[in-house]
Hints:
single chain, about 350 residues, 8-stranded mixed sheet, 3-stranded mixed sheet, 13 strands, globular
Amino acid sequence: MLGSQDILVAERVVRALDGQEQRLREAQLWPQVTALACGELPALPVGDRLQQACGSAAVALRWRRDGRVVCSMHPELTAQITASTSERFSGAVFARLPYANPLVVFPAPIPVTAPTGEPARVLGFHLYGGTQAPGEQGRRLCGTHDPALRSLGIMAVCEILDSRGGVVDVDLTKISVPAVGRFTIAEATEATLRTYQVDPRSAPLSRDRRSEWVTTMTGLALNVLLYLCSRTPDLEEVGARSRKTGKAKSVRARKDARPRMVRVGWRLGPALTRALAERERRGPTSGTGPAQSPQHRRCHFKTVWTGPGREVPDVAFVLPYWTHRELLDTDTAITVIPVTAD
């Protein structure tokens, strides 16, 4: 079963953005946030800080309106994914994202170093769509399944820590990657660096720290995205809500509604760990088969072209060469359990 840590982390993400909502309402900027969430381009207040706050709040509002799906990443699968490799892939594979505008959370937050040099941890990230390529003017917010999608937005939510591990601040990093064309993760990171805007609250950053931060966030998000969009991700909805008919819910009731929790890798992750432990127990073998390349010694993503004329891109999540079905003790062809927006 999904542990309480999943819910606690999701609540911390939502709570951080709820505090921002309260401040924007007090500043009488909520109409602009609502307009942004609907794909409009309202006049925004002068100042990068308020503009970024309005944009972040619009992303969170869109998530609440579009089904409030939370994808909980199993720590062991996350470790395998973040260490994986990939070839050049097509941004069109993002159309396979199984849920609209999900919030991805890490029940075991990922330790990182903030651009300021302080210790931090990644709680998760919101996914959303944009109607223009990264960096282009007139970019409107849209859904991840919108036909007008040209870029995929990623809003990472990180807690900044003090020397004792206490939370002193929350960082919201927004980056954008193409949803069209073909590129590698490294190329997507370079494109993100060219358009990345530093949080106006933070101190000036060196180029190296800025590059390291963007590279970490982009690589983490894209590897998780590729897994979610792959052919057979390990997905399972937990505690599905029943659809009841009757009187429409109030705004407060909708806001307080329980998120739809989806487990990601909660079968495959532990199985991979068991398989690796068993392989290490058995020790190295001197098989007579062909030598495996370094890429195949860990998980990796492979683009497969399908459909008429083989023009439709697909992504296969390939297990390491040492992983055999008899060691996994689980079916690697997992059936996706779909979740639709209200």
